[in-house]
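User: I'm putting together a small comparison set for a docking exercise, and I want a reference complex before I start. The sequence is below, and the ligand is LGQLAAA5. Could you produce the 3D structure with the ligand included, as structure tokens?
Assistant: Of course. I'll restate your input first, then give the structure tokens for the complex.
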Amino acid sequence: MPVSAKICGLSTPETVDVAIRGGASHVGFVFFPKSPRDIVPERAGQFATSGHVGRIGVFVDPDDALLAHAVAGARLTGVQLHGDETPERVAAVKARLGVEVWKAVPVRTRADLDAAHGYRGAADRILYDAKTPKGTLPGGMGLRFDWKLLDGFAHPLPWALSGGLDVGNVAEAAGLTNARLVDVSSGVESAPGVKDVDKIAAFLQATGRI
Ligand SMILES: O=C(O)c1ccccc1N[C@@H]1O[C@H](COP(=O)(O)O)[C@@H](O)[C@H]1O
């Protein structure tokens, strides 16, 4: 089965287009003012995507007003909660919005994976990402975790792999973890927040070959 890819942190029509043409299954938009990829919902809403491509909004401990505004304005099909959202909060977001909900689980040690179990029945998908240093962004830092930690882990939900992926390591990462969906942001940039169309195309070609 081929590996699908989400290209995250997009903020221009050109980069959205190259992601779609390259076969991305999902595109991602970040709604977090501290991020260099932060975008206003109405701008993201102007970017055209094919019907089969998921439009995922990335949030960090958002309130209900931001979620509702972004889902409508950016025409999101799903939200990725990348903060300290509890299972109860994730379930409430899902019930309120009625869109797909992904929960990011930060990973440094094997014990960190256990948090995923708490989201069974609340989230639709777990996104394993590298735990970032305190005081930095909770994601989008280009940091990876030890992929071997996922070896033998009984995943409670559909899941995706993220954190420090790029064209040079995505095949190894997918091979080691058996991920069927990968998520990249920094690895397809020329500078923080600046997406590179050639890197996006190369990343998608690489995932297509796995
Ligand atoms: O991209 C961001 O700026 C961001 C901000 C806050 C939370 C999550 C963010 N991005 C997500 O982080 C992972 C990993 O990114 P990277 O490939 O290591 O740069 C990815 O899922 C992004 O969606």
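Residues 4-209 form a domain with the TIM Barrel fold (CATH 3.20.20.70). Residues 197-209 form the longest helix (13 residues).
User: Thanks, that's exactly what I needed.
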